Amino acid sequence: MKKFIMLLCCVLFIAGSCSKVDNNDLWDKLQSLDSRVTALEELCKKMNTNIDALRELVDAAAGNDYITNVAPVKNGGDVIGYTITFAKSDPITIYHGKDGQTPVIGVRKDTDGLYYWTLNGEWLLDENEQKVSAGGQAGTPGKDGITPQLKIQDGKWYVSYNNGSTWVEAGEATGPQGPAGDSMFQNITYDDSFVYFTLADGTKLTIPKSPENAVTLTLNTVTRNSASFNGVIHRKSMDLKVTIYYGTSEDITVYKNEGKVELTEFPENRFEMSVSGLNTGTLYYYFYEVLYNSQAYFSRIDSFKTNDDLSSYEDLSASGTANCYVVSKTGKYKFKAVQGNSSATIVNAKSAEVLWESFGTSQIPTKGDLIMQAAVDGEFVAFQTAATFREGNALIIVRDASQNILWSWHIWMTDIPQNQIYRNGAGVVMDRNLGATSAETDSPSALGLFYQWGRKDPFLGASSVSAPTVAKSTLDWPVSVESSQTTGTIEYAVAHPTTFITAKSNVYDWMLNGNTDRWLPEKTIYDPCPAGYKIPSGDDNGLWAKALGYNYSYTGTTSNKGFDFGKAGKLDLTLTSAESCWYPAAGTFTPETGVSPDDTEVYGIGKTGSYWSCSADTKYSYYFYFYIPKATGSITPGRKNTRDTACSIRCVKES
């Protein structure tokens, strides 16, 4: 038709007998006709797309497929159709339209339960006067089905039901107002379980949504002889069944028949399932099946290992409980699941895991490099180190059934720290920073971890003694939050052990109410030191003031990476008679200067050393501080700092 229009235009151009006005009017009419033809061709294309889509829907309605996603198709801000994604078939696109001068292609279910094509509300008949099948027999997608095709020729609609071999006239394609649009689909709606397609003649096709996201099931608690699972129903249905298959063989054909539990009653959206009678210390494989609206979904194969008999595990809490345990060799370990150094049991603990591992270097560990697995079993948390012992730090957490963190413990993997007796009866102190894997002078392994004042859980320190880069770990650490009625509490800090909390303006404390009983001279449940040790006092009568004196300014040379306060030190300033007493200039995370873990840099590395004490006043807390410039420096045993700052810790033995 377009070729005809162009030819007519050329003839009109050659014939110069027409007036200019007449020519302009004729050109306008021809351009209008050309636009109308273009619109018709586009409409025909969309209608054929919709017919193909309708055929796919008929198959799906017969139970041969189900829908995984419905996405709107927009033109500007208007929704002009939908893209439907199926679990098995290719996606289809359905376009909206309005009633107009177009043949109405549809489908309708006959008395035999099958769908047949209709044309303008009547059965579409073949040359033998038989209804044309739209396919859609259950279990046989598209069997014997024929997809009609539309075309426009000589200003008329034509339809073919034999793949274009013959065509049947179906009405005018043009008119005074032109085509109004495709009226094949009247409406498309959906809910949690189904998508509903209403055709122009009122026929409704109902297609189930995919069972893949209808239910999720997660492993909750594993004991010596059982495993429990938490389930969530995201889309309800009267036809729903969840089955867990499990066994000791990874071969699905074997363990699908070895053991199973199933559930068909779901009074609530959340449910629990469990398997019992399992063998102790045994690896089990499992998957689950969701039967949803007669459609089956199978999860991936996963595994769990039942807990060992813990009688052979070394009890790290035998001599006292704490928030930190030192491990110096490979093995199987356990400790009591209590809050710090108290006897308060962690209630409702359902699972345990290793939240993060770090070598304290720029190398990112692989999960399991330090600790292979962790579990909670009755009154104990148990874990097993990797086969090859490696030094570093890890954090083990326990969760409740809702995956909330209930408590956490720092596992310090290093050779056993040595004690050093400080001068003037000040105290017996560890030879290294908390979290350091050595006491070696000028070594990055001596830097250790950082702690906000009054918090029991550590933050990573620097990975180098001369660069401010933070050490790497297996965890993608969360961004810091500002203290508030929600975040500035002990409860929030315990439940979010890796979240750095910054103080509100003019508060100077990550904890909003600012109480100072989190760390005390008598060890508290939030003290981060191992059993038998605690945070030292640090005011005018504290550890460093007793051993060293109050304030010092010095001129001279020392390592630019820290202070040696032993006999081997370069300056005549000693805390102990030990040969070496290395205090690295480990730096800090100081929100007041704009440096927090979010910046991935440590403030003052190689220049400043900051060591928390348990001493505090109403506004600040005391810490041991030194500054190493190129020439004159300073040492302050009882300096004050804001409590949202993260500093190093040197633990003192409990008396």
State the helical fraction: 10-25%
Q: List the total number of helices.
A: 5
Number of domains: 3
Structural class: mainly beta
Give a written overview of the molecule:
This protein is mostly beta strands and 655 residues long. It has three domains: 207 residues, no CATH class; 95 residues, Immunoglobulins (Immunoglobulin-like, Sandwich), CATH 2.60.40.10; 339 residues, no CATH class. It contains five helices and 42 strands. The strands form 14 sheets. Strands 15, 16, 18, 19 and 20 form a five-stranded antiparallel sheet that branches. Helix 1 runs antiparallel to helix 2. The longest helix is centred in the N-terminal third of the chain and has 45 residues. It is elongated, with a radius of gyration of 38 Å. The N terminus is likely disordered.
